[in-house]
TrEMBL record:
Coiled coil: none annotated. The keyword Signal applies. It comes from Deminuibacter soli. It comes from the Bacteria. The lineage of its organism: Bacteria, Pseudomonadati, Bacteroidota, Chitinophagia, Chitinophagales. This is Porin. The keyword Plastid does not apply. Keywords: Signal.
Length: 407
């Protein structure tokens, strides 16, 4: 009897041990599963970041504020009459942005949206598939990579704002789809490409006006074998030169002859366009280089406007800018490390019978970087010189002070 009891006790102990082991394994599996879904939070380069342990989900939230004082006024002179009008010095919150991005389900399935709080505008909303370096895809509303100056964020520029030619040549934000990627070969055989199809009617417009879509392409040669991101100032202090040479082209037919954050708009002399009235073809040659604290970028633009409702009347517009910045502490040991000096020269010629005004801008800026582009102070002085048909000159000085901070 005692032997049977001993045997029974042994069997009970064995069953209990197996049951405990099974429960432990189940609990461990549940704990491991729960752990993979746990969210960690920290502050990173793109604001507050919330990330699951299995890296399937990432949420980044960042806000940006831009405070600006300008005198005698803030906006670039557009017409000859702007030099004789009433000037209005300004102190304002120039930009107030909320940025949200990250990835979902897979690290290569990314999303991003950006909202302008001060004007209640939804600027960007994009889904990106970036599984392979050589072939990527995005769809939504975003800045077209037609010009380096416009593609660089307003918070990551070398100067206070973009040049005087941005108004005439930018494509700004469009709705559509794009493929892009990097073809990395050996040595200097290093290229990036972009190709997209868009509605061609600007930010906030979901439909095309006349069934003629906007077609865009860009080919970029990374001639030093290193990729240079869309960012101003050589904050990284590149030890090896990083340079690009890019060619971009676009064609579109719509009521509009220019674009901005507000959407489709008109250059002077083309107001109130009708659907499909203007066939616009543009091309841009672009260079950029960063090396040991020195940064360079330039663009040379050509733009053809054909009025399809007025006997195919054609106008050709030309514009350029060249810009350079340097952290002089790379050459002078006594120079403050956070201080950068920069200069820009830009020009625009509409080449129209109705307006032969040649527009020129020369600007000098000083940047003090408290924490890179995330917290910087910029002082800029600009000189505008417009030479109107008939040799009537006009000129104006402007000073701007700007604090840009991302939180």
């Amino acid at each position: 009897m005692s032997n049977r009891r001993c045997l029974l006790y042994k069997q009970l102990i064995t069953c209990s041990a197996l049951l405990l082991l099974l429960c432990h394994n189940t609990s461990a599996q549940q704990e491991a599963a729960d752990t993979s879904k746990k969210v960690s939070a920290h502050y990173g380069s793109k604001g507050f970041e919330f990330k699951t342990a299995d890296d399937k989900f990432l949420l980044q939230v960042q806000s940006r504020l831009q405070f600006r004082f300008s005198t005698p006024e803030d906006q670039d002179p557009v017409t000859f009459d702007d030099f004789t009008g009433i000037t209005k010095p300004a102190f304002r919150i120039n930009r107030a942005r909320l940025k949200v991005g990250g990835h979902a389900f897979k690290p290569w399935l990314k999303y991003y949206w950006e909202y302008e709080l001060s004007q209640s505008n939804l600027l960007n909303y994009t889904i990106m598939i970036e599984k392979w370096d050589w072939l990527k895809f995005q769809v939504g509303q975003f800045k077209v990579e037609y010009t380096r100056e416009r593609r660089i964020s307003s918070g990551e520029q070398t100067m206070v704002d973009r040049s005087v030619i941005n108004r005439e040549f930018t494509l700004d934000r469009q709705q559509g789809a794009e493929i892009y990627g990097r073809l990395k070969g050996k040595g200097i055989a290093d290229f990036n490409y972009w190709a997209g199809v868009f509605t061609g009617t600007g930010r906030g417009s979901t439909t095309n006006d006349d069934n003629h879509l906007m077609y865009f392409s860009r080919l970029q040669w990374n001639f030093t074998g290193r990729y240079l991101d869309f960012e101003g100032s050589d904050l990284e202090i590149h030890k090896e030169p990083a340079g690009v040479l890019a060619v971009s082209g676009v064609t579109n037919q719509s009521p509009y002859t220019r674009f901005s954050q507000a959407g489709g708009g008109y250059l002077e002399g083309y107001e109130d366009g009708k659907p499909g009235q203007y066939r616009v073809t543009q091309a841009n040659i672009e260079t950029a280089l960063m090396y040991k604290g020195f940064s360079w970028q330039s663009e040379f633009h050509w733009k053809e406007i054909i009025d399809k409702l007025n006997n195919d009347h054609t106008d050709n517009l030309h514009g350029y800018y060249i810009q350079a910045g340097y952290f002089f502490h790379e050459a002078l040991h006594w120079w403050p490390k956070p201080l950068e000096l920069a200069v820009r020269n830009a020009g625009y010629n509409p080449n129209r019978e109705a307006d032969q005004t040649k527009k020129r801008e020369t600007s000098v800026a000083a940047n003090w970087f408290f924490n890179g582009h995330k917290n910087k102070l910029t002082a800029e002085t600009s000189y505008f010189n417009y030479d109107k048909t008939g040799g009537i000159p006009a000129h104006q000085w402007r000073f701007r002070l700007q604090w840009d901070i991302s939180l």
